[in-house]
Write a structure and sequence with these properties.
This protein is α/β, with parallel strands linked by helices. The chain is built from 3 helices and 7 strands. The chain has helices spanning 9-22, 58-70, 91-95; strands at residues 4-8, 28-33, 40-44, 74-82, 103-108, 116-123, 126-135.
Amino acid sequence: MDLILKLPHAMWEEIVQHARADAPRECCGVIIGPPGECRELRRMTNTYQGIDFYEVDGRELLDLSKEVDQRDWGFTAIYHLHPVSQAYPSARDREFAFYPDTVYLICSLEIPDAPVIRGFFIDGDEAKECAISVVDGS
């Protein structure tokens, strides 16, 4: 799937702020909207107790799934933090990526003053990079 994700600048900033606030734990969240559109960002709760992985709270995810279905929207992107490593899906990230048509955004704070966000489509063990265009507006 070739796509350029148009990520509003405000959402890029929100992901970085969320990442910095939760570090060294991995933050996580979901961006929802009509297919392919970034309309709303929802911070989610990471229920994983360690600092090297994320697990979205199941109840929150279920409630959000119901909401997007009612609105005829979808999960445009799922994001999480790599606090001390590069923005590339780990083997564990690939193992637990259950939405192959959703962009997985990874925010890296490996260099704290220069956060990086990269996007990937993940299907099985394959991670294909998705270009991101940070755009003005919401």
